[in-house]
Write a structure and sequence with these properties.
- Helix content is 50%, strand content 17%.
- By secondary structure, the chain is of the alpha+beta class.
- It has one domain (7-81).
- Helix 1 (7-21) packs across helix 2.
- The longest helix is centred in the first third of the chain and has 15 residues, at 7-21.
- The two termini are 17 Å apart.
Length: 82
Amino acid sequence: MTGGEAFGDLAEDVRDTTRALLPPGAGLDVVPGYSPGALVALRFCANHDELVRRVVIENPPGSRSNDFVEVAKGIEADCKRN
C-alpha cells in the first residue's frame, strides 16, 4: 500500500498493482469485492473504468435488505462517506 486506508486510497492501490502486473493497455476481466472490499472494487471501477470489464460484489456494507434499490442507495451512501 502506498496511500492511506480510505476506500479511494485503496482503489488507487488496486490501480497501481493492476498497472504493475499487466501489460500496457490491458485490463481486468472481473474485479471481485467482498464486504468493505466491495466498496473498494466499486470505487476502483468508478475511477478506472478503462481497466475493468465487470465487477462482482458480495455482502457490501449497507446491504441490510433484499430490495436492490435500497441496497444500491446504501452502497452509494457508504461510498460518499469515504
